[in-house]
Design brief:
With 158 residues, the protein is an all-alpha fold. The protein contains six helices and no strands. Helix 5 packs antiparallel against helix 6. The protein is flat. The model has no long low-confidence stretch (mean pLDDT 84). Pfam families: TctB (PF07331). This is Tripartite tricarboxylate transporter TctB family protein. Keywords: Membrane, Transmembrane, Transmembrane helix.
């Protein structure tokens, strides 16, 4: 029998949450006028993606248990403590929420993703920047051009 590590417990909770989210997404009424993308499309895509990612998380091999077996206990630096990481992430999201209007969706989202990846220790800056630009620009184009949801442009001329 497999052991329930923290990743598996979280995966089960996310899976159950995605079921509830999908149930609510399927309650969204469709418009009587035919549209290429209806109002329920994005919530359903998010729900199915959340469910799929929770399944991946459940079957992921836990790196935490392997580290505990290999290395003796060590004192974490201040920035690596879980409470500090949660606080910094929460503060970054609050700053993101206030910067999205003046800076725009693209720039503020790229800065948030790049900054948090740097904070958590990812040091391949060009890969990180390329990934953030690709993901945020794709999401911006999907929402703005395909779904007709206008996001704040900020200082970038788009």
């Amino acid at each position: 029998m497999t052991q329930l590590n923290p990743n598996r417990i979280i995966a089960i909770l996310i899976f159950l949450m995605s079921i509830g989210y999908l149930w609510m997404a399927f309650q969204i009424p469709t418009f009587p006028i035919p549209r290429p993308v209806d109002s329920d499309a994005f919530p359903k895509i998010l729900g199915w993606t959340l469910m799929l990612l929770s399944i991946f998380l459940f079957f992921e091999k836990s790196a935490v248990s392997a580290e505990k077996e290999e290395e003796p206990a060590q004192v974490l630096s201040f920035s690596k403590r879980p409470a500090v990481q949660v606080a910094v992430t929460g503060l970054a999201i609050v700053i993101y929420a206030f910067s999205i209007e003046p800076l725009g969706f693209l720039l503020s989202s790229i800065l948030l993703g790049f900054g948090l990846a740097y904070w958590y220790g990812y040091r391949k800056h060009f890969v990180n920047l390329g990934t953030m630009v690709t993901i945020v620009l794709s999401l911006y184009l999907l929402l703005n051009k395909v779904m007709g949801i206008h996001l704040p442009q900020g200082i970038l001329p788009l």
